Structures are given as C-alpha cells and as structure tokens.
Amino acid sequence: MANEFTISETDDQLTPEEAAALDAAFAALVSYEPTSDQPEEDDIVTRPAKRAYRRCYRILLIGALCVLIPTLAAAQPSRFDPNLALPTPAERHAADVASWATVATAIALDGVSTWKTHCEATWDECEGALVKAGLRIGITFGAAQLAKALTHRLRPCAPACGNDAPDTSLYSMHTAFAAQTIGGPRLAVTLPLVIGTGGLRVAAGKHYLTDTLIGAAAGALVGRLR
User: Fold this and answer.
1) Owning domain of residue 153
2) Other C-beta atoms within 10 Å of 96: how many?
3) In the prediction, which pLDDT does 118 show?
4) Beta-carbon neighbour count of residue 173 at 10 Å?
5) How many domains does the chain have?
6) Tag placement on the chain: N or C end, fewer CB within 10 Å?
7) Is 185 exposed, middle or buried (0-12, 13-18, 19+ CB in 10 A)?
C-alpha cells in the first residue's frame, strides 16, 4: 500500500535534455518580475485620481490668474489708453456688430475642431472634450464678469454705451472668448479672429487697447484647458 501512488523510475525517467529544459523553465518562473511596461494595480487605481486632481488644480489656477491680472492693472484709463473709437455712431455700431460676428465664428470653428478631433472615435473621449469646452466657456465668462465687477473701469463710450454698462471696460470679454479658442483650430485661423475681435471692440468705443490685450491673455490662458 505504501507504494500504491508511486511512479516507477522507468516510466517517468527524463532524458538529460528534458531535465535541463525543465530546470531552465522553473528558474525563469521563479526569477520572473513584472516589467515597467506592466503597471501595478495601485498605479491603475490611483492614476485617474491623480489626473482629476491635476485638472482641478489647473482650473483653479487659471481662474485665479484671470482675476489677478486685471485687478493688478490700473482700473481707470491712463495715458497708455487713447480713445481709438471710430468717429461716427454708425461706424461704431457697425464695428460692434462685426465684433460679435468674429467671436461667434471663432467659437463655432473651435466647436467643429473639437468634434472632428475627439468625437469621431469614442464617446468617452468626446464626452471629456465637450466637458472641457463647456468649462472654457464658463471660466472665461465668470472671470471676465468678476474682473469687471472688481475694477469698474469706464468704457471709452461712457456714459452712452447702449446696452453695455459704462463702467465694465476691463477686460474685453469678446476678445477673451475669441482667444480661448487658441489651441483648437489652426493658429492661422484663430489668431486673426482674436486680433480682429479686439480691434473691432476698440473701434466700436467699447474698450481701450489694454482691455483687449488683457482679455486676449486671459482667454489664451483658459484655452490651455484641453
């Protein structure tokens, strides 16, 4: 009974070549270690959390800078802010309307670029890109509104500025909206729209040149959220 489950040496005897191959396979199995290309389970779990943290930090930083830049600037016009508005009301109104067209064109082209780049592959990628696009619009609007509320800078057209409040010159939200599209469509398309929007806002008597420069810088900063 003691030898009931034993295997005879003649039935299970290995050749020297087979024994050497078995020893090599066993040694390789014992010494195996995961390579750097194979992430550990902890890395797989923590990586999305790290990405979310960095994204939130970036959003907060962009918002803080967009508020800090205009508040550090002089609230009221200085000698560096000549009034470059067009001479007649009709010309100023035409420039105002044209500025709405240029900024709308920039945002529309950015939307088309986002769709073609991210939404023709998978829905997950598309959803993330659309969320970021919404955040860019929201941050641009909120930061500009907060800056206007903090500075109360008079517009060149003050006190008669039509539907626009006369003390909300700093900074140009139109220019910021156009500039936040930088990074989406080709720069050869977006940059002329940004410059055109800023120039038209100055020509319409709605903003000083420094308002549009600060707006362009704030918008371009927000545009990095992609």
Assistant:
1) 41-222
2) 22
3) 85
4) 22
5) 1
6) N
7) buried
In a domain, 36, yes or no: no
Is residue 16 situated within a structural domain? no
User: How many residues in the chain?
Assistant: 226
* CA nearest neighbour of 102 among 203, 156, 175: 175
Chain centroid offset of residue 4 CA: 74
Q: What percent of the chain has pLDDT over 90?
A: 47
Letter string b/e over residues 134-157, b meaning 16 or more CB atoms within 10 A of that residue's CB: eebeebbeebbeebbeebebbbbb
Amino acid 39 reads P
Tokens of residue 18, six digits: 């087979």
**Closest C-alpha among 149, 150, 171, 164 to residue 215:** 171
> Tokens 């936040």 sit at which residue?
180
Residue 1 pLDDT level (bands cut at 50, 70, 90): very low
Calculate the alpha carbon distances from 115 to 122, 124, 188, 209 in Å: 11, 13, 19, 33
C-alpha to C-alpha distance for 168 and 207, rounded to whole angstroms? 9
- Six-digit token string for 99: 């500025």
Q: Is residue 214 part of a domain?
A: yes
* pTM, entire model: 0.70
Check whether 117 has a pLDDT greater than 90: no
